[in-house]
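Page header: ASSEMBLY MODEL / two components / 876 residues total.
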Amino acid sequence: MKIGLEIHVQLPTKTKMFCSCPAVGAAGPNEHICPGCMGMPGTRPALNRAAVDIGIKLARLLNCSIPDVMWFNRKIYFYPDLCRHYQITQYETPVGLKGEYYLGKKRIGITRAHLEEDPGSMERSGDGSLVDYNRSGMPLVEIVTDPDISSPAEAREFLTFLLKDIRHVIDLPSDGERSIRVDCNISVGTERCEVKNVTGLKNVERALTYEAVRQTKILRSGGRIVRETRHYDEERKVTTAARKKEYEGDYAYIGEPNLGSINVRRIADRIETKESPLSMAMRLQKEFGLEEKAAKQIVNTSVKLAELFEHFARKTGKENALKWISGPISSNWRSLEKDADTKKDGLTDIVVRFMNGEINDVECSMLLKAYITGEDLRSMEKNNADLDALIRKAIAGNPSVVDDYRGNEKAGNSIIGTVMKETRGAYPSSDIVETTKKILDEMIR
Amino acid sequence: MSSGREPLIERYRMFSEFDASTLDEVLTYSLSDDITARGFQATAGSEMLKGYRPLFDAAVVSKMNGNHLIGKTNMDEFGFGMFSVTGTGIPRNPFDPERSCGGSSGGAACAAALLEGHVALGTSGGGSITSPAAFCGVLGLTPTHGRISRYGQIDGVSSMGPIGILASKSDLLRKYLPLISGKDDRDPVSAAQPELRIGNRKLKTAAVPKGITDNVSDSVRSAFEDSVELLKSMSVSVEIVDMPHLKYAMPAHYVVSVTEAATNLVQYCGMRCGRQDGDLSLPFNDYFVSFRSKYFGTETKLRSIMGTYMTMGDNRRNMYLRSLGARNLVINDHKRVLGEHDVILTPSMPFISPKIDDAVRMRSADSYMTGRFAAPPVFCGLPCLSVPCGYSDGMPIGMQFISDHWDEDILLSAADLWEKAFDMKTAEVRS
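Prediction written out in full:
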């Protein structure tokens, strides 16, 4: 089975791609339109540089090569929501060409990533169709993968990681109006079908699974797959034939003369790109010899936590970094997150004292926590002692837990639940969890 | 303008609804119908766009602010023609109403010839300023592609097709070119231009491509040869040069211009602007086809079909992309010659203006080939100037100066020089 995806990402620019209309936030249909994004004769496109910058960042994320000079093309098709009946897109010189993305050890080739404009949108109503041009001219990057994905589940996993990376690298808000749409190409035999405009990871997996089964059934019964475009019906969870698939030659691409050519190399040299979470995890593995799982866990909690880990690893060595980052720092991450940059040196100073033997690890743990939360150390000690006593009391009231805990860590949850109920939020849940585990671990040793 | 004022006001009255008697000094301008101005319909000569009233002024209109826009001039439909006979109205030659004004900016040349002190802005996608300037006996300046913002210009073609100035006096070119030139963020192509410098450089050297007067009419040949002699007598050295790739200019220009035209035409379908009187119960494809069948003229349909054909499948590589390659060869030929000479000289058109009836009957390909001197500089994005250089049967003949990219300066000098040396005739108006 071969699966290739075309991922359309709406870019977080303030204005549209070729005019100065706001990109999002319209109060109603056709609020954010002008002669330009309506394609009125006499207007011409002027390129939004912010879209180019974001395109470059995405091309880098995907390890694509960026051309020295790029231009735009006209892709022609007649449809009421496409105001000029040609879409301004990139054909010969996509902003990113021939890249790759690693899903663990699995390599997924990236055919290309190109900039283009979104058309408007259509709404069918009883007596006809209505067109809304608010979306017309929204900047997009379309990412096209090689057909390297081998199952619907893998497609979903790939998208999960890729989208996380994309959101981080281009600061794309996840709850905004900007959408990510996926066209799914799948072939079980030799001819492929394309399921257009699927939104949502779950739907991508479902649509692909449905198609895989449909195509397999056709082939088994001796039938032939017809190359076509299909739609995914989210309600019925099936794909339906939409139209025969066009071939590239049918679009009659020509260069877009009104935008000229763009020296993208010069722009790219000036842009700094944030490291993607996935490549950061890979770098941490390589640079500090972390296990893949540990590296991903840190990065997935927060890129900032991973940055703090790097700071620790440089000052206190990998072992100590791992010990304290995954211990007290992770469990108090929510309080620390916004001050991580200003507090990082104070934190490593405490660990250095531990390394010099000035304090033991319980003290170190307490000091770190006190430093992060700003609580008074003495009251914290007292609090901790009280919590300690409460937990021991709960265990004493239910002694079989200790034996169960030996076989299954989850047995500790009943104690945690009891204590939480009794203390009614007087202690942070992370403290209760941590202390309970510590006590139980001591008891079974 | 004291003694000539009354007859001039009379001419304005014949020509437009504008009342020139209200002005102290009669100085006005017009736009070919593919340039937008708020309050004016803009049809680009097409029935398809009847009723289109743009909500915005073209960049040139904003820059002409303070001058009097008296109206829009007739042109070939979307600029597709050399005789202004494919549009919504046929302008008549001021020297002989039976004859064509040339095209596509024919109405503009007519206005420039008839109205003293008038600046007619026209557009040229393939010699559409040089052709009518020659046929109507006026000066026609086509600047470098990108010199004047094309914001507000309805595109027939796109990678060429600058706005230019037609006028009867060289001082009008000199005054209005700097006024309407300059960078404009709304037209990225204009934003890349170097500054327009007018230093009144003296015209010293000119090149004439070998065999350029083969296959032109006798009257054009002799007027051109006399003009070259006149230039020599004014101590301009003239050399015959080889331009081996010039022969590719017309076929390549045709391919590039019709493919661009086809993509510019796809938007016209009875939605959003212009004609919208179709049957809304039709499926959208049929609805679109009904408009395109009904309101596009024959030449427009032909170019739409040819342009689409030339980019479909393998044709894209074999025709469109190869023509872009040929364009570079033609540009390099010109650049090489212009590296050693101030200007290249050619006739403007191969014959004097034909009768309108003959122009209407002319085969599309024959009509197209009459632009074989006027189209190549525009295809290369080079500036050029057409000046009257002789008369035959009372009809004007034109000569064309081509200069290097961004060097409009030398063309303005040439216009001044020529105006002093050559006796330009004014059209007699017969009412």
